[in-house]
Structure formats: C-alpha cells, structure tokens
TrEMBL record:
Keywords, comma-separated and alphabetical: Amino-acid biosynthesis, Decarboxylase, Lyase, Lysine biosynthesis, Pyridoxal phosphate
Protein's name according to its UniProt entry: Diaminopimelate decarboxylase
Family: Belongs to the Orn/Lys/Arg decarboxylase class-II family. LysA subfamily.
N6-(pyridoxal phosphate)lysine PTM positions: K57
EC number: 4.1.1.20
Lineage: Bacteria, Pseudomonadati, Bacteroidota, Cytophagia, Cytophagales
Amino acid sequence: MSFPRQLTSVQSISLSELCQQYGTPLYVYDGEIIRRQVARLQEAFSGLDMHIKYACKANTNLAIMRLLRSLGVGVDVVSMGELHMAAQAGYGPGEITFTPSGVPFEEVKEAVEAGAVVNVDSLALLEWFGETYGSEKPCLIRLKPNVAAGGNIKIMTGHRDSKFGISVDLLDKILEIVERYSLKIIGLHQHTGSDIKEASAFLQASEVIFEAARHFPDLQIIDLGGGFKVAYKPDDEVTDMAHLGAEISKGFQKFCQSYGRNLQLWFEPGKFLVSESGYLLVQATVVKEDPARTFVHVDSGLNHLIRPMMYGSYHHILNVSNPEGNPSTYNVVGYICETDTFATDRTMPEVRPGDLLAFLNAGAYGFTMSSNYNARFRPAEVLIDQEKAALIRRRETMDDLLRSQLDLA
Ligand SMILES: *Cc1c(COP(=O)(O)O)cnc(C)c1O
C-alpha cells in the first residue's frame, strides 16, 4: 500500500459519517495497517527467532494492544501505569518487558513482582538489583552504544550525551557488579532513537552490542530496540525493512555462531507498528484571510496532537471534504491559547469552513501525549477492523475534567 493521496473512507467506512456519529476531533485507527506492519516486520526477519515487543507508550488503547497481542506481539512498558494497562489488555507476566528510565527502585520492584522482565538502565539500578535479587531474578541490561541515530536530536537516545542506558564504556564496571552478585543477565538491550531510516545505524549499534555480548555467558536475548522510520510525506524515505532484515539477519547469524548458541532477537517498535494506522480528524472552523497569510483554524490543537510543536514533526493533512479542490497555501493552526501550529505554508486542496481534515501518522504518540490543557476534552477513538468500526474510547466530559479536583468551597 502506498502513501494515501486522498482519504474519504477507511476500509469501507465513511469518515464523514463517523464524524457525524461521534463528533470531532476524532482519532480513527485502521486495524489493517497494524496487521500489515506486523507482517512486514515478521517477514523481514523470518529466518530468525525474532520477537516483537510493542513499545506501548506510542498508543495504549486497550483495543490496539489486544489487536497486537492477537498477532503474537509482546509488549514493552516504561511505567507501572503502562504495565497495568497491558495486563488489562490480556498480556501475561511473561509477555511484558519493563524498560525504565531512572525510575525509583520501588517501581522496579513492583514491576518484578508483577512478573515483568527488566531492562536495567543504570549502574545504580544494577547494584540495587544485585543486592535485592542476586541470581534469583534474571534481567537485561540496557547499553548505550554511543551511536547517533534518529530523525533529530530530541528523539535520539543512543548517542554519547543521551541519558538512556549504561554507556558501553563502563563495561568493566558492569561486569564487576554482575560478578559480585552472580547476576543472571539474560539479555542485552539498546534503543538508539526514533525515525531511523538507515540500516547502517542499526548495524553499527548492533555491532557494539555483539561485541559486548561476549562477556555475558547466559544470554538468551539481543534486543535492538525500536525507532524504524515510517513515511510522513508522499515519496518519503523510510526504513527499508526487507533490506534491514537481510542485513541484520546476516550479522546476527554470524554473531550467534561465534557466541556458540542461537539467541532470540527482539525489537520493540512503537511508531512502526501504529503510526500510519491513525488519523486525527478535525473540522476547519475559521478560514482567516490575514494580509500576511491565510490561516485555517481547526477544532483541535496541541492538546490533542503535540508532535508538531514538541518535535517540529510533519503531519500530512488531507482535505476529506474537498479532495479535488483548487490547491491553496495555508498555515493550519489549533485553538489553544499558545502558539499552536500544525503546519506552515502547507499547500492543499481549498479548505472551506466546516471541511473535515485528516492529520496522518496520528496513531503513535498522538492520543497518549494528549492533555486537558485549556480545559478541553480529549477526543474519542474509533478502531476500524475487518470492515467494522468500534468506538474504543468515548469523548471526555466535564465530569472527567473535574474528577480529581477536591472542591473545598
Ligand atoms: C519509545 C521507545 C521505543 C519505541 O520507539 P519508536 O520510535 O516508537 O519505535 C522503543 N524502545 C524504547 C526503550 C523506547 O523508550
């Protein structure tokens, strides 16, 4: 399937009818695209014992997690909140990995007690893990490979100055702690960043991990993280999964041979699995012909989709109501009382007040990063799968906004 140039329906469900039924803004997900992405990844690594652990911070809707689980995909969580949501979606303890980032050790303890396997991300946590569990509980170690990869500096996580993981330069210290507590290290992990399109970045980081792996005799798993890039624009370059799969598989098989045993290869993508499946549907409210430029205001904002303002990320916008309109150039802006720009100088079919617009690539880091800023309700969500649309989250109400406030009046 190619990048959509027009969009009026998903599977056979009309988007304007969905919006009439559930209102706007509305998150809509296409289950077929999630199935396609899982299949792509599985096919690319079909020669290996490859396991996918969905990085669910991308989208924690229970229906999405249930769908992924039904496709044989495990889950990677970063908090106890996510762990509980994954459990609610049917994930058993053996299927959950916990990849914390400097969290209180109490939280790690809770995760271990819930049966999750932990990616240890600091020497301090490794020391605590040793003191607390010794050889009793196996764990993985998250290494920082000192490889700069990813779409921009804000979403890189494996470079030298990143806070994530334990630097491979500290391998001696790691080994000393492992030995002192007879820790059972069953896996090495790395995650170098997001929007990585070059296979070379993965290969470079994997070489660092393979090299370190020689020092750990009990390994069962090499986890190469997530971060595969998807298409944001027509003709955008993406991670060539078949090429990446072939290249990594070659390196991995060679590594397993020299290690002396076949290990499992894990990936934990978020974006790759769900980004393209999601659309944020909004309505154009006001078209403002300012002398400087023309603004399209929509009934949503950075409270519902913060990626453009947070990372400068690009979301393609399709005019669902007027796909054949004459092209015109707009700044598309939200209704939040802050600078709230979705798109600058964007040429698209003429937008008229009331038109329905679709933001693409809204399936990952869309709803999960949304907020109630400006006391706005978060949108409803709909999953379309096997030609059926299901409401998978209702729109919020005033009661939701007031629920945790203690009104002492
Ligand atoms: C966020 C995250 C991922 C997923 O990144 P994507 O770019 O969405 O694939 C994977 N692993 C870890 C540890 C993460 O924090």
